[in-house]
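RECORD TYPE: protein structure
NAME: Outer membrane lipoprotein carrier protein LolA
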Amino acid sequence: MSTLAAAICTVPAFSGTPSTIDRFEQRYHGMKAIRCTFQDAYGTSGTLQAVKGGKYRVTLPDRTIVCDGRTVWNVTPSQKNVIINTYRHDAEDLSLERIFFGVMTVYRPALVRDFKNRQTAVIKLLPPADNARIAGVRSLDIELDASMHVRSVNVTDDMSTTKWTITALTLDPAMNASSFTYSVPPGWEAIDLR
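PREDICTED:
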């Protein structure tokens, strides 16, 4: 037997590698809706409800952002104002909604750390080509628990790394269509940028 053949035969197999990536892709590539709570690196917490196709509702301590897939309402109750704008599918803004429904389905996964003797695994997602980046994302590290729920997301672009911790994740929950529309209350200022 040649030295190369002997070396190939003695390389340990990574038995969990394909199944971890396969399970990740099966769970997240076909999803149509998501609900979760999140906390960013600065300690800001919020909730996300989203449906594939640009419909989402993000609730933060000081504001709520609602989108029906065409119009975005940025609501600040303390100032009694609403900024209204057009939803842009190709915008360079990055959000958890774009991560779950865009980056996680287009970028290619590679296993960084499997579950072996650990509670979590880490998958790195990379764009299929440099010109195929979404919102400038160079790479995305996703920490998964044993149930394949996302626990954290680390996004790296050309300038920085952003981390979100994810809890109470539900995939494909029933969603009320009224969650993705908004009517400006009487007496509130509406700033229409469309």
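COMMENT: The radius of gyration is 20 Å.
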